[in-house]
Amino acid sequence: MSHPLRAPVAACAGLALALLLPAALRGATPAGEAPPKPLTGAQVLAASTAADWRALDPSNTLYLELPAGRVVIELAPLFAPHHVANVQALARGHYFDGLWIMRAQDNYVVQWGDPDGKKPVGAAHRTVGAEFERPLRGLSITRFPDPDTYAPDVGFVDTFPVAADAAIGRAWLVHCYGMVGAGRDNDVDSGGGTELYVVIGQAPRHLDRNVTLLGRVVSGMELLSVMPRGSGALGFYEHPEQRTPIKSLRLAADVPAAQRTELEVLRTDTPTFLAYAEARRSRHEEWFKVPAARLDVCNLPIPARPRGNGGAAK
Amino acid sequence: MSHPLRAPVAACAGLALALLLPAALRGATPAGEAPPKPLTGAQVLAASTAADWRALDPSNTLYLELPAGRVVIELAPLFAPHHVANVQALARGHYFDGLWIMRAQDNYVVQWGDPDGKKPVGAAHRTVGAEFERPLRGLSITRFPDPDTYAPDVGFVDTFPVAADAAIGRAWLVHCYGMVGAGRDNDVDSGGGTELYVVIGQAPRHLDRNVTLLGRVVSGMELLSVMPRGSGALGFYEHPEQRTPIKSLRLAADVPAAQRTELEVLRTDTPTFLAYAEARRSRHEEWFKVPAARLDVCNLPIPARPRGNGGAAK
């Protein structure tokens, strides 16, 4: 089955981007010179300015401290305000300290929490109502022109991958690699953040709209993705000694400033971001011979880098 | 941007599948009874017969022996005959024995071979011509009705995920999780199989048609995906002691029968496969509340199981 609309769509999108971009990002040259080579993603980032980046907000940033190091997670209160508030309360109550990474299912998720599900939640709630999706209204989405297998519209809101369906006026976070969600039982309202999972493989888009996503890993993903896979059903570890202990989970705002990991992330509401996405859509590095001219919303990890030093983006 | 064609396409596909499937796979009941619950993927597999499965061909199967165990790789001579023949020759010459896993880039690839690129290749070739794509003609594709971000058509040929473009009469293997390819330098003809990589993250579809894929991991993927990520550029290990040694890479046909891993894989040219894909497209397990009604070609790992015992599929 062919999709005859795609080529024109992509062509129009490319044109629109070219018109939108400032000359520096188009690689424009004075009249008479040969047209310049299109920029690579690295070149777009190298040409970015401080205004193209945004520092992480300590009050919406979690530090998951593992024996191997720190995982930095950015929370998404625009999409899951009650879950985010509950995870913040759990972190403030040191709920996760001494608990475990208890599940690692290959090409799917790594999950952590209380294997017995009985640890008191203190001032937090054991469960909160489902936040699988939200109204589309009020969101400013940087839309992708590319067709998506699963949703009518995809793109980014701030640094989060999102999908939307204008016909029903709804939007939701997308299960891309590194996205963090709240495990639940069969009851839709049985989650709440006491068990958290992170996507470690091909985007399990069938989970979209079926479970609450509440954030994404900004750095340290490589500490989670290498967890030995569990041999039990669903990748749960069969023996307690196989679990990896959690030293602590803290809100960055509750950590002394000197001990914070100061990161900034690429904003997605700028011409620089459009140029970056276009450079990833059609790669012009010498190695590439046939540019894809398409980009899956889960195939554009948002660059992050140490704050304030103009360091290389990861 | 909306994609108005999608809902009708999916609906038609569902109808076509329903008409194609035998009653047992539709869950049909005698007239007058309530319509049955649609089958889950596990139920479709449980109802499969021996004819729905195919044993791996030892002459097209590789065993990558790592300290942690065996990785089983199925080769794809239909798509990369020269690369497959060359890798078979390299395996017969014990080329990979004593070499290393030398690269692990998070959410991308794990790669193995000779870090110095100088080990003699014996009767094999150092490089063979690019096999990025092939003629569409002669292939029997089990097509997916779902829209794909990157290609006009996607589906499976045998147990391999493929994309195709009828307008140019070409088809190619798709970079899904677990697919194995031949690393190359900037010259398109600089690969050949002396360096092999496997996808360990979100499908890097921008690599499609830019590099030769020659197989896929059938079992043991969890031994590769947990490799510590390299801290050098592109995930290369910066220190030799960080590399994981390769004990050997052998063609299964060259291994004594008693030492083989006898696996069978789900055929993709059967009504059972269509039912299985449909069960993964719209999941009816109790946990799911909003069936996706779509399926990415990279979101359907082909089931494999021990041969001949009717054991549970992995």
Can you offer a commentary on this structure?
- 2 copies of one chain form a homodimer.
- Chain A has 314 residues and is of the alpha+beta class.
- The first copy, chain A, folds into 2 domains: 6-54 and 268-306, no CATH class; 58-261, Cyclophilin.
- Helix content of chain A is 17%, strand content 24%.
- Chain A is built from 6 helices and 17 strands.
- The first copy, chain A, has helices spanning 6-20, 23-26, 41-46, 81-92, 221-224, 271-281; strands spanning 53-55, 61-66, 69-75, 100-105, 109-113, 134-135, 142-143, 153-157, 160-165, 170-173, 179-182, 196-199, 212-219, 244-245, 248-251, 263-266, 304-306.
- In chain A, strand 4 (100-105) and strand 5 (109-113) form a beta hairpin.
- At the A-B interface, loops of A face loops of B.
Question: Which keywords apply here?
Answer:
homodimer, about 325 residues, alpha+beta, 2 domains, 9-stranded antiparallel β-sheet, 5-stranded antiparallel β-sheet, about 15% helix, globular, disordered N terminus
How many structural units, i.e. domains of chain A? 2
Give the count of helical stretches of chain A: 6
N-to-C SSE series of chain A?
Answer: HHHEEEHEEEEEEEEEEHEEEHE
The CATH C-level name of the largest domain in chain A is Mainly Beta
Major interchain interface with per-chain residue totals = A-B, 57 and 57 residues
| CATH evolutionary superfamily of the largest domain in chain A | Cyclophilin-like
Q: Could you say what the CATH topology of the largest domain in chain A is called?
A: Cyclophilin
Q: Provide the low-confidence segments of chain A as ranges.
A: 1-24, 26-30
Terminus-to-terminus distance of chain A: 38 Å
Q: Record the strand order, biggest sheet of chain A.
A: 14-4-5-12-11-13-3-2-15
CATH architecture designation of the largest domain in chain A:
Beta Barrel
Beta content of chain A: 15-25%
What average pLDDT do the residues of chain A reach?
A: 90
Structural class of chain A: alpha+beta
Helical proportion of chain A, percent range:
10-25%
Oligomer state equals homodimer
Shape of chain A: globular
Cα-based radius of gyration of chain A, to the nearest Å: 21 Å
